[in-house]
Specification:
Length: 726
């Protein structure tokens, strides 16, 4: 290596825990730490990140950096430190962590040039009669504009499902006129805070350094208003705010409230193009965006001067990445807030047991709002005993009667059923055979429109079988109830009543969801049926009845987290009822109404349920009392995956005996066992569970595994703080 070469260290986006030495010519400026570089790697070229310009013992025969892409750091020191911490905590290669932090366009080498956004446009309704009476989309557009009662921006119309070619056609017909917006819309003033809201607002706003607050507010208590009023003084000081939400496509009303209150709001979610995400990332880094509302990956966004982080619905599982780098965005906000020395506000009506445990240990400060805003009352809860009742498409006669009463009183009805499709399985009445996926250990779900069998794990689709594959009989019976079947049954029972099904099959885009919500918010009696998409962040002031069709499955699951998740979903979906002046009712169908978990939840509320469940977990030595990690392995040949985890277990047991000099009781190593879904996409899946008395002990054991040589057909991963743990 020539003496005029300068050696640097580069992390490359490959599943390798090493970093690599490269050199730059003496005539070239040394890149900044955090800059992107194009470097040779093996037989290819990759874009890596410079992590050090000082190498004490450089390797001989280093390769030359091909191109320095950034004059300054692409990844600032704060995010570089976060990446280093994540690599150690989640036992994941640093180069892959840095690739996760960078937007996709940045990973591909796009320039860091901020492009001016196009001027917003406003569309004014001129002559509704000029729209074709036979064109349903044109009539829908006219109705949309009339309901809005004011000019609407082009992006908002596109979000509602009206594309640009259609708008231009309507402009030609004289239905609408387009004008450039001067963005002079007056921002909404803050609402008058209730005493409980005011206490929470004061507690956070007077804090000028790192502190974590857990805001536990009942559904409809005005947590969003607390967020907005906490943000105001931070923004007045010229600082920025990061707001994480579980799924941005499901919270259009929340987003609108932020945009109506503050200027300079940006969004970050998977629905954006690569360039849109990059531009948002750059504008946050430059300070142009004052408030960023985003989903999980927004936690990696750089800021010019971050002053506050808010995590809405902090309990939601969407914050946990389930593939690749299995990070928890909620947990990373604690690390970022601590690094920036700023307050962090976690909000939920149903806080996670982890956060409640941190309150008990004095790490988080607990803020409570026990009353709904505006004087609205909490809904009443009742159980319908399903034992011995005849059912129509999963609905008891009692529930059908109650639905009829609420519709007659001009109320809206929300039916919660966490199963997509028409029926969860197809059963042979002669021999009991069930239709299963060819590639997974999963029953196929029957779907109508189009009629097919679908695997909800690998997405394979099959034609409906005409006869039983086992005995040849043609008596195949749909068993169980999905949202499609519920929709069909409700349409038969309540003809003429508007019916809206909201699940992954009907609302794959924000436009589809917004279109349905727009109809619902007109306030006419209607029935909504759907999955947990209905439970998140929606405000339905006219809903007077929420019905949970089947609450039993979650309370009877072997997964120790299932009761917590089930209770959270019930409370969240129940919170859609009675949010205005009309009282709300929640009716739960159950085959096990005496279940002590369900009884405690209904009689004493979520806080009491959560405390009892937390005590039970702590007594059992389960998280959050003790840290957990999971090793997962999968392969087409089950023996390969099983033997790998057996080798890992032997290694870990040896580590416990020899290096740590601690008795076996300090670490529990369970398995390997088949995963709950033992085969997906033809790959057999196994898991090994570790529970330790302390995090340092757990991380020492995980680090000792290193990078063992494995067959190319094997996939394996480490999941620290797993969410799906059983």
């Amino acid at each position: 290596m020539a003496s005029n070469h300068h050696v640097i260290q580069v992390a490359v986006p490959r599943p390798l825990h090493s970093v690599y030495d490269y050199h730059v010519d003496g005539s070239t400026d040394v890149p900044k730490v955090g800059a992107r570089l194009r470097v040779p790697f093996g037989r290819s070229e990759v874009i890596g990140v410079c992590i050090s310009t000082t190498v004490d013992t450089p390797h001989d025969n280093t390769k030359a950096v091909l191109e320095i892409l950034d004059a300054d750091a692409a990844i600032a020191e704060e995010l570089l430190d976060l990446a280093q911490w994540m690599s150690g905590y989640y036992h994941y290669p640093l180069g892959e962590v840095l690739a996760t932090i960078l937007p996709s366009a940045a990973r591909k080498g796009s320039d860091f040039e901020i492009k001016p956004p196009p001027p917003p446009d406003l569309w004014h309704l001129l002559d509704p009669s000029a729209a074709s009476p036979r064109a349903k989309t044109q009539q829908a557009f006219v109705q949309h504009m009339q309901l809005a009662g004011a000019p609407v921006t082009g992006p908002d119309l596109e979000s509602a499902g009206f594309n640009r070619p259609m708008l231009r056609k309507l402009e030609t017909l004289g239905v609408v006129e387009r004008k450039h917006s001067t963005d002079s819309t007056a921002l909404d003033p803050p609402l008058t805070a209730t005493p409980e809201q005011a206490q929470a607002i004061e507690a956070v706003t007077k804090t000028k350094q790192f502190a974590t607050f857990l805001l536990e507010g009942v559904t409809g208590s005005g947590k969003t208003e607390v967020y907005l009023q906490v943000m105001a003084p931070v923004l007045e000081q010229g600082k920025q705010v990061l707001v994480l939400v579980p799924e941005i496509a499901l919270t259009p009303q929340t987003l609108a409230r932020f945009e109506n209150r503050f200027a300079g709001v940006g969004i970050m979610h998977s629905g954006l193009t690569d360039q849109q995400r990059l531009q948002t990332w750059l504008r946050c880094r430059s300070g142009d965006i004052r408030v960023l509302i985003g989903t999980r990956s927004a936690v990696f966004t750089p800021f010019a001067d971050l002053g506050l982080i808010i995590v809405d619905e902090e309990h939601d599982s969407s914050y946990k990445q389930q593939e690749g780098l299995r990070y928890s965005a909620r947990d990373l906000t604690v690390k970022r807030a601590q690094s920036a020395n700023i307050p962090l506000l976690l909000g939920s009506a149903t806080p996670s047991l982890e956060s409640l445990y941190n309150v008990q240990r004095g790490r988080y400060r607990h803020l409570e709002i026990t009353q709904r805003a505006g004087g609205a009352l909490m809904p009443s809860f009742d159980v319908i005993d399903m034992r011995g009742q005849s059912l129509r498409g999963g609905f008891s006669d009692t529930l059908i009667r109650i639905i009829r009463q609420h519709l007659a009183a001009t109320g809206q009805v929300l039916i919660y059923l966490n199963r997509r499709g028409f029926a969860p399985t197809l059963l042979c009445q002669s021999c009991g055979w069930q239709c299963v996926c060819s590639d997974c250990d999963a029953k196929l779900t029957l779907h109508r429109r189009p009629e097919q069998m679908v695997c909800h794990h690998c997405s394979l689709r099959f034609a409906l079988p005409e006869r039983c594959e086992h005995c040849g009989h043609t008596d195949l019976l749909p068993i169980g109830v999905g949202t499609q079947r519920a929709e069909e049954t409700l349409a038969e029972l309540f003809p003429g009543v508007p019916l809206y099904r909201i699940d992954r099959d009907t609302t794959r885009t924000t436009n589809q969801l917004n279109s349905q919500l727009e109809q619902i918010h007109q306030g006419r009696p209607c029935i909504m049926v759907g999955t947990q998409m209905l439970a998140k962040g929606h405000h339905f002031p006219q809903v007077t009845l929420v019905a949970v069709v089947n609450a039993d499955a979650g309370f009877l699951s072997p997964d120790f987290r299932a009761p917590e998740r089930t209770a959270q979903l019930i409370v969240q979906v129940a919170g859609r009822a009675g949010r205005a002046e009309r009282p709300g009712q929640v009716w739960i169908q159950s085959h096990q109404p005496e279940n002590p978990l369900l009884k405690r939840l209904m009689a004493h509320g979520y806080s009491s349920f959560a405390q009892a469940e937390l005590n039970s977990r702590l007594d059992a030595g389960l998280p959050p009392g003790q840290p957990m990690a999971m090793l997962r392995a999968e392969a087409f040949d089950p023996q390969i995956a099983l033997e790998f985890l057996q080798q890992c277990k032997g290694h870990l047991l040896n580590q416990v005996k020899t290096k740590n000099n601690t008795p076996h009781g300090d670490v529990q190593i369970m398995g390997p066992i088949p995963a709950p879904m033992a085969r997906v996409a033809k790959r057999a899946r196994f898991q090994l569970i570790l529970i330790a008395e302390s995090r340092p002990q757990l991380h020492r054991l995980l680090a000792s595994i290193g990078q063992p040589k494995t067959p190319s057909s094997l996939r394996w991963s480490i999941d620290v703080d797993p969410y799906d743990a059983m």
